[in-house]
Amino acid sequence: MAYEPGPRGPDDRLEVDIIMCVVPEPPKGERNVLVSKDGRQEPLMVGTGQDNFLCGNCGAVLAGSMGPEEIEEAPLFKCYRCGAYNRVP
Ligand SMILES: [Zn+2]
What we know:
The protein is mainly beta. Helices cover 6% and strands 30% of the residues. It is globular and about 40 Å long.
């Protein structure tokens, strides 16, 4: 399934792009890290909100259309494009 940005809602709120913070590779097992399955080039999480979370290194969308409650639960993301570890700022 290819990722497509959702359409704007009827209230015309804009989607917001948020750049995440690149962090060093965490020690194994210390934190949950979301990684791409089978090397797929698509967001690791897709929610039902308005915010896109972008890799702080290369700008790939790692989590799309996230709501505030959804992103609170998010672990670290390993970028499917450049391999950088990112955390939600
Ligand atoms: Zn990246």
